[in-house]
User: Fold ATP-binding cassette subfamily B protein from Paenibacillus methanolicus.
Amino acid sequence: MNKLLRLFKESLINMYAVRDAFRVIKPFLRRHWKPHAGLFLLVFLEIGLTLATAWLMGRMTDSAVNRQFDELMSMVPLALGLTALGIAAGYFGSHLELWASGKVIKDLREYLLRHLLLVSPEYTDRSRPGKLLTHFTQDLFGVEGMIGANLVQVIRLPIIFAAVLLYMAQTHWLLAAISVAAAPLVALCGGLFGLLLKRNSRSIYDQVEKMNVFLSETIHGLSVIRSYTLEKAYFGKYYAHSERLYGLARKETRLQGFYAAFGQIAGSGIFLFCLCFAAYLVSTSQITVGSMVAFLNLTGHLIYPLTGMAAIWIGYQNSVPALERLMEVLKQQPQTLLLPGYVSTPTPTKGLSIHFENVTFGYGGRPVIDRFSLNIRSGQTVAIVGTTGAGKSTLFNLLQGYYQPQQGLIEVDGKRIAELAPDELRSSMALVAQETFLFAGTIRDNLLLARPGLTDADIQAAAKAANLHDFIQSLPDGYDTVVGERGAGLSGGQRQRVAIIRAILKDAPILLMDEATSALDSETEHQVKEALKRVQRGRTTLVIAHRLSTIHHADQIVVLEEGKITEIGTHEQLIRKNGPYRKLVRHQHFLDKEINAAT
Ligand SMILES: Nc1ncnc2c1ncn2[C@@H]1O[C@H](COP(=O)(O)OP(=O)(O)OP(=O)(O)O)[C@@H](O)[C@H]1O
Assistant:
């Protein structure tokens, strides 16, 4: 009893889940109402064809039984016409179905990527790439069970059921009543199978996500796997995942098989019962043979709407988990409504001032930046130093508006960044990040991304400005050298050089360099640093550096410890104090001396 109550409760919750899922796709359905309306109109044609065919079969049978061959032959053109109409309706139906569901899925797919591009990095940083990919490769297609022909079926099947029942009741009401006696049982079983399938399909979606996450990590971590000889272990893990997915898929097939068998047993049982009863009615001359044929022909049309409705319910139960997973992304608040695009800055070489005031921030409540205040005048170069995890890169994240401080404010050129559009804010900054990311394509393709309208001459000028033109020319195909996904095929230092040229090409008034030269050898680093000094002229520059010898020239050096400023001043001022900066310099100096002594 308790189990039944639980199932009943679950089915109620499921109805709410289906309703919520529909809310998500409603705007897309509305946009593509035409193919859905077309499918709906075809429903009436199909009902007409079903009844007309049954009627015609009855008439033709009676003509044959009564040896009225002329009448029989006169009905052949009508039979051919109905068949042709049925074929045409089938053709247009599948065309409309593809149009309806294809368009909705296409729009949903585009909307999903658009949304992902607009949501806060807080969400995308938290989500693993494999999980986000699964939304596009698996979840989107799960929605198909709720749109197109499946959606129209919800209206179509009850109408067919009612129309066929009315027609049959006209012939013999008792026979019609017997035919539908099993309806509640078929519907109830369909509902229960739907629940079981929903549970299973949720597990399938989760399992596919786990496998995609695992695969994405395995492919990106291949070098670690190889060097730590983890191949066997990783294969074992994937094998276990794959086995589990296979088990779930088998369970789904089994459940669907059970339900299909149940539908067939119910259908055949009803058919057989009706056949016997109708034969009795014919033998007692209560109905004609033709009426019996028409009646039996329609029995199938009475059963399949019932099993069909249950199958649709089951299909919905498969789609609901997919939509719930998509909703998890779609419910994330976008940072802006319009897709950001590049906004040119009128005077890129005139740096903009930056002001942090009492900024406090933590990821998920864990404090990282603590009442941070700093004033950077236009054109100044400020270096931020400090131990690993002190919060240096987080300051860059906050300045670019990826995360919002929990307290305090940040201003760029006197304007609060929270009030600036993301494209306006980010177009004013060029970043060389700690981890260099290059897209698959040529080096030129990667450089052209810096801003629209760049020419080959601009690219070469920027490379020369960074003392890196010769390096690019030395690559096998120069600027046309192809790099793989995530910059594969180039060394870490080579990738970093391309990233530096890309940042210069952006020609922004603020330069953000997070360990921008850390992967370069010391000679190249020196050359690039000298070149960057020229590029920095007039621009506001924030540099994060571990190698302190590279930041002596900074107008201000900020020492950060656990998100707090512990010291601030020029290199000369700080070195005179016996504070953390001097300690860091001494430590590095000591290391340099050790290296010199050893070499
Ligand atoms: N996206 C994130 N989500 C949660 N915590 C994060 C995230 N990014 C950084 N952190 C945490 O915030 C703290 C500061 O990180 P941050 O990258 O700002 O340090 P950092 O000073 O730049 O370090 P490093 O010199 O090693 O680059 C660290 O403890 C880190 O684990």
Notes: The mean pLDDT is 84. The chain has two domains: 14-331, 354-598. Residues 354-598 form a domain with the Rossmann fold fold (CATH 3.40.50.300).
